[in-house]
Amino acid sequence: MGPAPAHRRPGKRVTARRTGRVGSRHARAATAAPRPRPSPARGGAGLGYRIAERATGRGLATWAVRELCARAAEVYGLTFLTAASRVENLASRAVPARTGFTVVGETRLSGLPGLSFRRALTDAR
């Protein structure tokens, strides 16, 4: 894994409070247009992330998603990841944009408008 954000490096105090989570899943929210769901059998997985409000704006989600993309390709042999975020959530939409994902369509997340993203992992770093 690459270097952690500056606030997580040795010498900086880190509390035990949870700051968020990043992970991958096999299933994602239903999309407006039917598409095959990502699965390890097809070479992909869905990506989800959530950062605690008190920890936002520090680059944690961007760093974690970059690391997860690299691990998904190198360790698990995945060839792509998908993600989705609500249209209204500008911060969550910015993470895929900063980490090499492209918008592939529209979706609904908990009944609200969202965007679907996809990233090929041929260049995971």
Quick recap of the structure?
This protein is an alpha+beta fold. The protein is globular.
Question: Can you describe what's shown?
Answer:
Strands 1-2-3-5-4 form a five-stranded mixed β-sheet, with helices on one face. It is of the alpha+beta class and 125 residues long. 19% of the residues lie in helices and 30% in strands. It is globular, with a radius of gyration of 15 Å.
Secondary structure elements and pairings:
Elements: E1 20-25, E2 44-51, H1 60-74, E3 80-86, H2 90-98, E4 102-109, E5 112-120
Parallel strand pairs: 2-3
Antiparallel strand pairs: 1-2, 3-5, 4-5
Q: Give the topology string: H per helix, E per strand.
A: EEHEHEE
Strand content: 25-35%
Major β-sheet annotation:
5 strands, mixed
Count of β-strands: 5
In whole angstroms, how far apart are the ends? 10 Å
Shape: globular
Low-confidence stretches: 7-16, 24-36
Helix/strand-derived category reads: alpha+beta
List the total number of helices. 2
Order of adjacent strands in the largest pleated sheet: 1-2-3-5-4
Proportion of residues in helical segments: 10-25%
**Can you give the mean pLDDT?**
76
Radius of gyration: 15 Å
